[in-house]
Amino acid sequence: MGFPVCCAEVYFPIPFLRMPDILGFLRNLVFFLVHVLALLHFPHIEDPLSSTATATATSAAEVARPSEVSPPVIRRLLPVARFGESRENACECAVCLCEFSEEVEIRRMRNCNHIFHRTCVDPWIDQNQKTCPICRTPFVTN
Prior knowledge:
It is a single chain. The chain has helices spanning 14-37, 51-64, 71-77, 118-126, and strands at residues 80-82, 105-108, 115-117. It is mainly alpha-helical.
């Protein structure tokens, strides 16, 4: 019993044993040369997070953003009507997924013409949301 004695010693060539030391030395040499020659400083490329790029992006976003309108103003701009009085062919509210009945109050979005129960879309507006819950069209354009 026991281990076989025939392969008690394994011989590796000396260069093979020194390979990790050689590779480590080459790595340190490359890092040193890069540091000394200042090769880490690449030509200036506009950083998207720099202050000038951020200022330009912010001004572009401000142009595209709907005007800052308070929720009470949005509710006044989106009139309330009875579903029975309007000539809508929609069958259910996309927020609560309940069917519209004749006497229920609805709000019609001005830009996209989607309709919702007033009780469904008013909390959405009160949370300072300024876009349609379905298509994200702004309630109020500039």
